Amino acid sequence: MSAIEPGTDGPSEDGPPPHRLGVRVYYEDTDFSGFVYHASYLRFLERGRTELLRALAGDQSDLHRDARGLVFVVRRMSLDFLRPARMDDLLTVVTRTRALRGASMQLAQEVRRADAVLVAAEVTVACVRDGRAVRLPDALRRRLAPGDAA
């Protein structure tokens, strides 16, 4: 899988614009039927979340260092597999902030082919340091906030 056209859309009245990450489906992403293997979508979604954070806060390794060991971990994930993707498809992973809590964020993600939603995901990501939940850094919270929810 490789990134194609990473970036963001224009401004949004409801908070930051959704982040879009292009991916191409390779043979290694598929199962014997030629469809994308379900676990491959988890990698696509992870890369979408990582690139959203990179666009808003820079490299996670820098954030980890500067915030004294801060990491993000998936706490909960719910996926709906709606349509299959195949080898060589060009997909777009769309990631947007749904809600922010003290030490977590809820993200809505979609894997799309053109205008068709193939996979819809709701993901809760916790902010952790030394195995304990910690508040999202204020600077990141402001950048992630949906609407005026900062």
TrEMBL record:
Thioesterase domain spans which residues?
34-119
Transmembrane domains' residue ranges:
none
Hydrolase in keyword set:
yes
Which region ranges are annotated with the description Disordered?
Answer: 1-20
Superkingdom in the source lineage: Bacteria
GO MF annotations for this entry?
fatty acyl-CoA hydrolase activity
Q: Which CDD domains does this UniProt record tie to the protein?
A: 4HBT
Q: Which InterPro entries match?
A: 4-hydroxybenzoyl-CoA_TE, HotDog_dom_sf, Thioestr_dom, Tol-Pal_acyl-CoA_thioesterase, YbgC/YbaW
A Pfam match: 4HBT
Q: Which UniProt keywords apply?
A: Hydrolase
Q: Which family does it belong to?
A: Belongs to the 4-hydroxybenzoyl-CoA thioesterase family.
The name on file for this protein is Tol-pal system-associated acyl-CoA thioesterase
High-level lineage: Bacteria, Pseudomonadati, Pseudomonadota, Alphaproteobacteria, Hyphomicrobiales
